Amino acid sequence: MTDRKPRDKSFQDFYPPSYSHCYGCGTANAHGLHIRSFWDGEESLAVFRPQPYHLAFPGYVYGGLLASLIDCHCVGTAAAAAYREEGRKPGSEPAFRYVTGSLQVDFLKPTPLGPPLHIRARVEEIAGRKTVLSATVTADSVITVRGRVVAVRIPENLVTEHAP
Amino acid sequence: MTDRKPRDKSFQDFYPPSYSHCYGCGTANAHGLHIRSFWDGEESLAVFRPQPYHLAFPGYVYGGLLASLIDCHCVGTAAAAAYREEGRKPGSEPAFRYVTGSLQVDFLKPTPLGPPLHIRARVEEIAGRKTVLSATVTADSVITVRGRVVAVRIPENLVTEHAP
Fold this sequence. Notes:
two-stranded antiparallel ribbon; about 35% strand; six-stranded antiparallel beta sheet; homodimer; 1 helix; Thiol Ester Dehydrase, Chain A; globular; mainly beta
């Protein structure tokens, strides 16, 4: 389940326009990372190929990028899980909008720069507006990073095309 | 203490060559963020101006960038604090090399995209190879993000110009 066809719709393809500018995962951000997340059974999966300049030191991936991958992938998973929980079609109105409340990243070992990174997330708990998710980053079949995200659902009117 | 002259030497200017490629703070990374950190009394300070494309949604800074700023600024502060602790000149050999063991980021409120961001860090504890730091991000005099980093000192021979 690692390689999706470009035409497959990711969680982020269903985001409302105001969320499509995100540097991490917005489809409309020309400079961004374009993280794309999909269901893979009960987990969600994003596959990401870092650029050669995304390094911490020679041969290893930059930690801030790894934090970014976990962040966007988990927030996307929180939104997708909310649709699934309510039995609604992804992207149907009113849209679910989540932001990151907190992000915890544990770097277990250096992540090699070269192989595609597999970012997996799992919903641990949905409690009202808050969704707690756990995540891993795997390179060459080795888990190098573990993450935990608290995603918070926000009212639709808090984000507009023209804020603040 | 917010605006340093370009010729002032930051913590990162004293990094050994193998650390100068970091996407977040390496002076030699042409694509990177070039985070620059300085002492400001007992705290350390970095001032960063996000690019217009560093957004989460219109008007607000991308969370992954904020995590990256805290990460690199704290790891740089850990190295600078180690030199200070030993009464050694910054950059003197053998060089201190720190990596991020864990990173916790709490997003208190959205961070406006526009004003320069002030990232402040403070050493909370130095315990052997581990240094614990707390950090804040301030925009327009309002603290929008709090962070906590455990930086870990690694032996010099673990990082080379040609790893892995």
